[in-house]
Design a protein that fits this description.
Shape: globular
CATH architecture: 3-Layer(aba) Sandwich
Mean pLDDT: 92
Oligomer: single chain
Order of helices and strands: HEHEHEHEHEHEHE
Structural class: alpha/beta
Strand order of the largest sheet: 3-2-1-4-5-7-6
CATH superfamily: Vaccinia Virus protein VP39
Distance between the termini: 39 Å
Radius of gyration: 17 Å
Largest sheet: 7 strands, mixed
CATH class: Alpha Beta
Amino acid sequence: MALALPRVRLAETAAHHPAAAFAAPVREVWLEVGFGSGEHMAELLARHPEVGIIGAEVFENGIVSFLARYVPEGEEAAARLPPNLLLWPDDARRLLRLLPEAALARLFLLFPDPWPKARHARRRFVHPALIPLIARVITPGGEWRIASDDPTYQAWVEEILAGQDQFELVSATAARPEAWPETRYEAKALREGRRPRYWTLRRR
């Protein structure tokens, strides 16, 4: 964390022009909120070297697990990191407020904490108060992808999406779309009999 993370950490000042903050030129910028151990994000980085990908994660264990994919022990200061990667080890809502308008071509929210108790609903990333902020940073025609295996959260997403007009629903399905890399959490949910649901939204 002390040596490897600063090499790819997105500074607050750089968040105002995120495409210029990557170590290599990028065609567009994507954001994954709550990347966990980073299986999905690592696959995106490999498949799309022309895209700058920002990973937002508040839990240190997930950040360490993700960076360990690229950094052998003892090489934290020198190991090669993907040039199209930046990390935001803080609340993603803070990042949304810093990003310029239409900064993102895609946003991913995959299997977030469902905050199942009613009194905790305000903590959910899919929330009426956040929809305008999320819409502001996604370019018109850009995508927001959401996945959840929690029935309470699934019903919540359907309710919130029905009450907004800034995103068009492209698809809502129980089968993972072909272009979505699998996550470790998703595989675990399927093994344990939980049924994920996947939404693809398009910014109007």
